[in-house]
Design goal:
With 223 residues, this protein is mainly β. It has one domain. It is 0% helix and 43% strand. The chain contains no helices and 19 strands. Strands 3, 4, 11, 12, 13, 14, 15, 18 and 19 form a nine-stranded antiparallel beta sheet that branches. A hairpin with a 6-residue loop joins strand 16 and strand 17.
C-alpha cells in the first residue's frame, strides 16, 4: 500500500492514496469511477449522465443513458441533484428513478470514495452495477456503501444491496418511482434502522431489496 513491500495490517480494510484505511473497499471487480468524481476534488449534490452497454429498464421505460447522483439515486429519465429527501413520488425526479439511499451524501477529496459502475456476467445475462461508496455531508467518517443493480435479462427489476450505512437510514428515502406523480414502491422514509449499520469490513450484503416494477412488488432478504 504505497511503500514497496508494505502490507496493511489486518485491522485495515483498504488503501487510499498510499495510506492504510479502515474505510470500505470497492467490491465490484473492474469497477470504473464516474468521471471526475473523487480523487483530488470533493463532490456534493451533483449528477451526471452515463453511457452503459445495454438497456436498463423500470416501469416499461428503457435507456442506455441513465443518470447517477452523488446522493444515492439512479435516474432513467430526468434527474435532480436534490439533497433533501422526501416521500415518493417526488416531483424533482420526472422519470423512472431508483432511490437506493437518497440522502445528503458526499464524496470526499483525497479518498477512494466515488460512485463506481460496471458490468458482471456475459451477454445476454449481464448485470449493471452502480456501487456507491460515500460519506454523509459534514460527517466524513460516516460511511455509506451500497449497490444498485439492473439486469439485462430481467426487464423492470432493480435490486438494492447494502453493506454499510452508518446512520441506518434515519434521514434517507429508499424506494422506486415511475415518475414525479406516478406509481411508487417505498421501503422507508426517514426510518431508524431501516438498513443495518454494517461495518467497513462487510463484504456480503446485510440487506437486499428487490423491486419488480412490472408487478409493483418488493422482496426483502436479510443478510
Amino acid at each position: 500500500c504505497g511503500s514497496v513491500g508494505y502490507v496493511c495490517p489486518s485491522s485495515y480494510t483498504s488503501c487510499s492514496n498510499g495510506a492504510c484505511s479502515s474505510a470500505p473497499a470497492v467490491l465490484l471487480p473492474g469497477a470504473v469511477a464516474v468521471p471526475t468524481w473523487g480523487g483530488m476534488f470533493s463532490v456534493d449534490d451533483s449528477y451526471t449522465t452515463l453511457s452503459v452497454p445495454f438497456s436498463i429498464s423500470m416501469y416499461g421505460y428503457s435507456t442506455t443513458s441513465p443518470s447517477v447522483t452523488s446522493n444515492g439515486v439512479v435516474c432513467l429519465g430526468s434527474c435532480s441533484s436534490a439533497y433533501t429527501n422526501g416521500n415518493l413520488p417526488n416531483g424533482q425526479f420526472g422519470g423512472p428513478t431508483a432511490f437506493g439511499f437518497w440522502d445528503d451524501l458526499m464524496i470526499y477529496a483525497s479518498t477512494s470514495q466515488s460512485v463506481y459502475y460496471g458490468t458482471t456476467g456475459t451477454a445476454p445475462n449481464r448485470n449493471l452495477v452502480f456501487e456507491f461508496y460515500e460519506s454523509h455531508f459534514g460527517q466524513s467518517t460516516q460511511y455509506y456503501h451500497f449497490q444498485i443493480v439492473f439486469y439485462e435479462n430481467l426487464s423492470g427489476v432493480v435490486d438494492f444491496l447494502y453493506y454499510q450505512a452508518s446512520d441506518g437510514g434515519v434521514s434517507a428515502t429508499i424506494g422506486v418511482q415511475s415518475s414525479g406523480s406516478g406509481s411508487t414502491i417505498t421501503y422507508a422514509v426517514n426510518q431508524a434502522n431501516a438498513v443495518p449499520v454494517g461495518t467497513s469490513s462487510t463484504n456480503s450484503p446485510t440487506l437486499i431489496l428487490s423491486f419488480n416494477t412490472n408487478t409493483g412488488t418488493m422482496m426483502q432478504t436479510s443478510g
